[in-house]
Amino acid sequence: MAYVSADARREQLIEAAVRVIAREGADRATTRKIAEEAKAPLASLHYCFQNKENLLLAVFTQLSAEMPLEVDPSEGESASLGQVLEQRLTRAMQWTVDNPVRMRAMIEVTLWAERYDPELSVSFYDGFFKSSEAVLRQAGATLSDEELHSVVRVGMSIVDGLSLQMLTNGDTERALRDTATACAMLKSFLNESERNSV
Fold it and tell me: What is the C-alpha separation between 119 and 163, in angstroms, rounded?
């Protein structure tokens, strides 16, 4: 049997976990099933991650790092707050459309964390929340902290909701059309809010 480095084995196990979690759910994704999916010894999973909880955390960390939420710098410099938010939401939904198995695994791991470690699931959202808020502040948001928090939470809710709908009905074109509609609504709200704050 060929030698597999610990880093390569970790990556194999994370990828196998994504597939098993998306197919069977986080609760039914046992370490044995994940090791079998990776064609790896069960002992190697425990060597790399110690337990299922650490593996699920690694899965979420990997998937959240993949989601393209950054704003294109060439567009970001002159973009309005609404345009920046639209870029982020559109890129997140396009990633979901392009990676439905990965998005399903991310949702499953988030729901698993909410059941077994609510503080962990809150920390998952906090990471997205803080990065979104920082980008919108850099774009020159003049909203109050409370208004900006609300806009970010609504944006995250849109991605969550449209992702679940797309995973349920499989209609990727509708998901992208609905994302455009949601972005137009948010941009209208932001334009009005920014006019009122001047």
Answer: 23
